[in-house]
Write a structure and sequence with these properties.
The protein is α+β, with helices and mostly antiparallel strands. The protein has a single domain (about 5-90), classed as SH3 type barrels. The chain is about 25% helix and about 35% strand. It is built from 3 helices and 6 strands; from the N terminus they run αββαβββαβ. It has helices spanning about 5-15, 40-45, 80, and strands at about 15-20, 30-35, 55-60, 65-70, 75, 85-90. It has a 6-stranded antiparallel sheet with strand order 1-6-2-3-4-5. It is globular. The two termini are about 20 Å apart.
Amino acid sequence: MNVQEEKARQSDMAGRAVQLSRLPKGTRAVIKSHDESDFQLTLMEMGCIPGEPVWVEMIAPMGDPLAIQIAGYYLSIRKKDADKIWVEVLDNK
């Protein structure tokens, strides 16, 4: 995907709740909620709390894992765990 396509995709997602795993590299968002799971407390302990800004720094070539910047540090997270985090994309214009 080229830069223009990524920006168009980010713009389409702006203001909507989407799974963190669906965001392209470079997207900024705010965590809105988590799916109910045994992993929910662990996510919150790692800084993935509602209201916290998050930035998708890198995505591995095969799409798993993702490197995100959150709470002032970098976190590598599996795609299946990122599926449980719902975010609202910020308009990056």
